[in-house]
Write a structure and sequence with these properties.
By secondary structure, this protein is an alpha/beta fold. Helices cover about 45% and strands about 15% of the residues. It is built from 10 helices and 8 strands. It has helices spanning about 20-25, 45-50, 85-110, 120-125, 135-140, 150-155, 170-180, 200-205, 220-230, 260-270, and strands at about 1-5, 30-35, 60-70, 70-80, 185-190, 210-215, 235-240, 255. An 8-stranded mixed β-sheet has the order 7-6-5-4-3-2-1-8. Strand 6 (about 210-215), helix 9 and strand 7 form a beta-alpha-beta unit. Helix 1 (about 20-25) runs parallel beside helix 2.
Length: about 270
C-alpha cells in the first residue's frame, strides 16, 4: 500500500486532468495522493470530487510554491492548505499573473529568433490558470520547431539558453508564512536538487515542518541522508514522484510508505483541534 504526495495536473503544467490523475492512482492501487500544482489550487476540487467515487482512497489538497534564495531555486510544498480561502487565492492570482508576464517575455525572445508562437497558442495548452515553460514546449513541438519537449528545453527554455527568462519569485520564508497562514503544512520539496544544503537548516529554524525525502531526483544515499535529517529535527517525512503525467508514467513509481500519509494527516488533525 503506497502513496504519492507530489502530483501535478493540467491546472499547472501536468498532462493529466485531476480526474485522470485520480483514476490512474486507483488503477495503480495507491491509497492517497496529493495534488500539488504550481501556484494554483484550482485542480483540488475536481480531484476531491472524483475521489469520492472510490472507497478507501484520499486526496490531500496541496500546492507547490516556487521561491528563490541566494540565487537558489527552492520549492515549498503546502499540504492540507485551505484552498477555499479568498486571501490565498488572491496571493496565488498574483503569482499566476507574474507567470503570464514571464511567458510573454519568453515568446518575445523566441520571436526575435524567428520562432513565431503566440500567447494564445500557449494558453490553449493549459487547461488551468498557471502557465509554465512546458506549455511553450508543447507549442514548439506542435508547430514543428522541435521534435520533443526535452529538445525545447535543451535548445531554448532551460537556464542559460537563448529564450530563458528567470522567474520573479518570493522567498522560501514568505512561502512558509503563506502556507501556515492558510492552515497548511509547509514541506521542503526535493532538497536533493539544491546546490547549497545550508539553506535547509535556516528553513528548519524558521519553521518548515517536513522534508520530501523520496523524490524522483533522489538516489538511495540522498533518501537516507534527508530521512535522518528530518528525524533528527522531528520533522515530517514525505515523498512523491513529482509526476506531470509524462511517459514513462512516474505516478506511483516509488514505494512511499502509507505511514507518511497517516503522520501528515495526524499533524493536520492536531493543528485543527
Amino acid at each position: 500500500m503506497y502513496i504519492d504526495l507530489h502530483v501535478h495536473t493540467t491546472f499547472s503544467d501536468g498532462l493529466l486532468t485531476p480526474e485522470q490523475v485520480v483514476k490512474m492512482a486507483i488503477k495503480l492501487n495507491l491509497k492517497a495522493i496529493a495534488i500539488t500544482d504550481h501556484d494554483t489550487v484550482d485542480g483540488i476540487r475536481p480531484a476531491l470530487d472524483e475521489a469520492k467515487k472510490y472507497t478507501g482512497f484520499e486526496v490531500v489538497p496541496g500546492v507547490e510554491l516556487s521561491t528563490d534564495w541566494n540565487n537558489e531555486e527552492i520549492h515549498i510544498l503546502g499540504y492540507y492548505i485551505d484552498y477555499n480561502n479568498s486571501n490565498l487565492r488572491t496571493v496565488l492570482l498574483s503569482f499566476q499573473q507574474k507567470r503570464r508576464k514571464r511567458i510573454e517575455e519568453i515568446i518575445a525572445k523566441l520571436k526575435n529568433m524567428g520562432i513565431n508562437i503566440s500567447i494564445e497558442d500557449v494558453c490553449a495548452k493549459s487547461k488551468g490558470s498557471s502557465l509554465g515553460r512546458p506549455h511553450i514546449a508543447l507549442v514548439l513541438v506542435e508547430k514543428g520547431y522541435v521534435g520533443s519537449v526535452q529538445e525545447a528545453f535543451k535548445n531554448y527554455l532551460n537556464k542559460g539558453k537563448p529564450a530563458y527568462v528567470p522567474k520573479e519569485k518570493l522567498t522560501p520564508f514568505s512561502a512558509i508564512d503563506i502556507i501556515k497562514q492558510n492552515s497548511g503544512i509547509p514541506v521542503l520539496a526535493h532538497p536533493g536538487l539544491l546546490e547549497d544544503n545550508s539553506i535547509i537548516n535556516e528553513l528548519i529554524s524558521y519553521g518548515i515542518m517536513g522534508i520530501e525525502v523520496v523524490h524522483k531526483s533522489h538516489n538511495k544515499p540522498q533518501v537516507a541522508y534527508y530521512t535522518k535529517l528530518a528525524l533528527d529535527n522531528n520533522l515530517l517525512l514525505t515523498g512523491g514522484s513529482d509526476s506531470h503525467g509524462e511517459t514513462p508514467l512516474l505516478l506511483g513509481s516509488f514505494d512511499i510508505p502509507l505511514d507518511y500519509f497517516y503522520r501528515l494527516k495526524e499533524i493536520k488533525r492536531i493543528f485543527t483541534m
